[in-house]
Amino acid sequence: MSKPVIAIVGRPNVGKSTLFNKLIGERRAIVEDTPGVTRDRIYGETEWRGKTFIVIDTGGIEPKSDDVILSQMRTQAEIAIDSADVIIFLCDVHAGLVADDREIAMMLKRSGKPIVPAVNKCDKVGDLPMEYYEFFEFGFDTDPVALSSIHGSGTGDLLDAVMAVMPDQEEEEDEDGGVKVAVIGKPNAGKSSLVNRIVGEKRLIVSNIPGTTRDAIDTVVNNKYGSFTFIDTAGIRRSAKIKDAVEHYSVLRAHTAVERADVCLIMIDAGEGITEQDEKIAGIAHEAGRASIIVVNKWDSIEDKDNSTVNKFNEKIRIALSYMPYAPIMYVSALTGQRVSNLFEQINYVYGQSVMRVSTGMLNDVLRDAVTRVQPPTDKGRRLKIYYMTQVSVAPPTFVIFCNNAELFHFSYQRYIENCLRDTFGFKGTPIKLVIREKGEDEE
User: What pTM, to 2 d.p., does this model score?
Assistant: First the structure.
């Protein structure tokens, strides 16, 4: 089940980013962005009372401004509102209730989403300033929460209020949907076209199930290869004015889709080549530990192809996505259907690799052979001793290795061990996670 999404919206300079930083930093949740996410930190995660939330930061809304930059910020906020389960409407107690606050309040009411009004900059201890009470005029179902985003006071009350209005999320029935496949990528990479091609070609739609994210439709497909649930993350129109906002929020939408998936299809537009945005989105699947296939779409649009064309494109992908050399690359055309049917076998294969288990005995045979061929590193006369390895989970395959000194277990030697595991057992299409644990020699 995907994490609920909270969007923080309001006028410029009311303290949205400060509140955002306080929420994601104070709870000691994930305070670093998914690899490659833009430096303005569009989203992060926070935890409260055992529940993890995605928090979206937005630019300030100027309802009546014709300024191009402010218009883009307003569009960003509108996309965030569309993506959110709950909206925090932040106001400034020092400025009091102004006309723009009223305009934004009306826009939020039209969204139909649960709204938690919050009044920021209530920094003084003691009685609340009289200006705070002006914000009851909004008439939301939830009373305004007084807080100080700088000091962090009131943020607990704010999250309690958010949890009180958070819509219930139903558990998904894994047994009916088969392998869950997230189709992720930039806008216009061909995500919806691919899903439509799969559905139209096979004509085996079982049902259209509303996804847990606002912009996703789950399509269940049964065929000779098995049962699959395709999670399409399309839904944002792209235009020149909102290009940046769209690309930023495509990262958020990929993030929520990946959490629900077993396998990710990372769509790349052959005509554009691999871009920085592709790297960001692929990084989400990698960090989440999902089995992945890199799908180069619109291959039919490339003219004058020869035997070297694929090799050159492969090389560019491997350089840009050097952190996921395990992911197979497939070339398709969603428009013509070329090689689309081949995806099913590959999906089943990488999914099988991601849930494969290896016995401890076999693992330690590989480990002994690896250590014999390449001696563990030393530092100042002390040598790394590796005792044994065992697999503790799947999706991704996760292995715990016990040694005498975790600091000596350098990244390069971990990569060597990972490569030995791949050479022996495959694990194609899936990340591998190694967890290093220290075990004293007297504990052997």
Answer: 0.64
